[in-house]
Amino acid sequence: MEVAEERFSMVVFSGTVDKLFPVAIMASGAVAMGMEVDIFVTFWGLQALRQGSPARLARVSKDFEDQAGAMMQILQEKKVPSWYDTLRQAKELGDVRVHACAMTMDLFGLTKEDLDPIVDDVVGVGEFVDQAKEGKITLFI
Amino acid sequence: MVKADRVIDARGAYCPGPLMELIRAVREAARGDVLEVLSSDSGSKRDIPAWAQKAGHEVVGVFPEQGYDRIVVRKAR
Predict the structure, then answer these.
(1) For chain B, first and last CA: distance in Å?
(2) What is the pLDDT of residues A20-56, one digit of tens each?
(3) N or C: which end of chain A has fewer CB within 10 A?
(4) Which of A33, A71, A76, A78 to mutate to test the interface with B (most CBs of B within 10 A)?
């Protein structure tokens, strides 16, 4: 799709399946509409992208944890691709960059090697905000 | 009725699956090819035409069937 590039940014603070789904789906929609996507993963969002975490993750938001089992079952029954696969497919289709938050990395003592390969690079908040300001949409999830 | 060069059966896939499958197919297709998506996802009949318009392709039509829609797009670029 060679349409004019617009930018769509997300700050992903949450690390639960129910919040990571919309992240992946929004990224897909933005890519479909020809936008560049920058995802800044911080705190719990970054924990979800540690080596091996995406496949194991089954946490949902505290508010709805009583419904976690039912939700996971529905997703499985209806063969909905996981948030991780959805995000990976969005990356295959267009320009989606996943940036790990440098401060979170330092805090938890992580290196780039500790993270899932879906993560492109490690950036500071200044750089991310500077990129995001060029865009029309920035979400905090 | 336009004859499709390729039919993408995305029935059973949820948003954004059918659209993503179409985009992939459009990339592989030749200019002028007609692609037909079968989708049971209720958003596709609006989503896919919106995408096609934005990406500069032609929406041949949206045809409701029993329990799914046939959405036909011609690759114009």
Answers:
(1) 22
(2) 999 999 999 999 999 999 999 999 999 999 999 998 9
(3) C
(4) A33
